Amino acid sequence: MFLIKTEIVCHLVNMLAKVEPNTAQYIEEAGLPENILTTQHRYMPEIPVMNLLEIIQEKSGEILFQKMLWESCQTLFIPQVLYRIKKVETVQQAIDLFLEVRKEDAPHSQIEFAEVIGKIWLGRHKAPSKAPWFELFEQLVVVYLIELLRALSKDKHWLPTQISIQSDQVERYQQLLSHQKNSESIQIITQRNYSAICITPEILSLPYYPKLHWQEEKQLTIEKPNFFDSLKTALPAYLCSGKLPISKAAQITGMSVRTLQRQLKVIGISYRELLEEAQINQAKLLLKDKDHSITAVANHLGYSNISHFSRAFKKATGISPSKFV
């Protein structure tokens, strides 16, 4: 189960709002929490985010969707990573550091270098899928990597000589690149197992001068989570609508209910136990905020009444909610 930074998801929701005012309906359709724009949870599961990407493309149309991809990479996705790249001297060193800090935004990110027949490639491996969002996501990856090299090299018109894609839809990528200067010279190699751009040694050896005006944020160091940790991270964001049924949990993880149950059985925990743990942990956070009453916390987390919540909380923590407060 892959995770994506909530900040990125919120930007995608705002992209949707540009072409479809009734975002609430499509947030629910994608499988995201209804309070996605205000949630304090740092990560969202990948499948609902990819569903949202598909909805945006459907509502905006091909040309506008591709234009928004370029704008998003230029104004948000790249700058929010590059402010963390410091104390490096070359573009090569900057990319090496980028590959490390990128993992905070997408802990399962597999962007990496590869050398094939004497050529250097920068790209991402991802298991292929027949879902419509897969090809849309690959377009985002291609744009992201091009804009990354442009930002690092300070060449706003830079383009790779070759692009490798897993899709066979070469016309869509020609359209994606059509408004770029000299894009007709790019060779697009289709049906590969790697979404990547070809990079020359010359550009890697260029000096890197970071932009000093990018505002620093607190950095977090996280390890690539396993399935159980990812699920525990994703569940709390969905508790704002009450208890999350296992059918919904299976949907946002891209699994069947039986597969999810089997995965949890291997770990030695049931879905009910996992959900209760998530509820209690969330209750602790809410109770620390004096603006939330015990009754409000119980209702927020889907307990039928305050007595039920109090019993569950005391069983898990050894103290009542009133004493915890």
Q: What radius of gyration results from the CA coordinates?
A: 22 Å
Number of helices: 16
For this entry, what is the oligomeric state of its chains?
Answer: single chain
Strand portion: 5-15%
What name does CATH use for the topology of the domain at 227-324? Arc Repressor Mutant, subunit A
Q: Helix share of residues?
A: 40-55%
What CATH architecture of the domain at 227-324 would you give? Orthogonal Bundle
* Low-pLDDT residue spans: 212-224
In what order do the strands lie side by side in the largest sheet?
3-4-7-5-6
- Specify the structural class: alpha+beta
Can you offer a commentary on this structure?
The protein is built from 16 helices and seven strands. It is α+β, with helices and mostly antiparallel strands and 325 residues long. The strands form two sheets. The chain has a five-stranded mixed β-sheet. The longest helix is centred in the middle third of the chain and has 22 residues, at 132-153. The radius of gyration is 22 Å and the shape is elongated. The two termini are 34 Å apart. The model is unreliable at 212-224 (pLDDT under 50).
Blueprint of the fold:
Blueprint: E1 3-5, H1 6-19, H2 23-30, E2 43-45, H3 46-60, H4 62-77, H5 79-82, H6 91-105, E3 111-116, E4 119-124, H7 132-153, E5 162-164, H8 170-177, E6 187-189, E7 195-199, H9 201-204, H10 227-234, H11 246-253, H12 257-267, H13 271-288, H14 294-300, H15 306-317, H16 321-324
Helix pairs in contact: 1-3, 2-3, 3-4, 3-7, 4-7, 13-15, 14-15
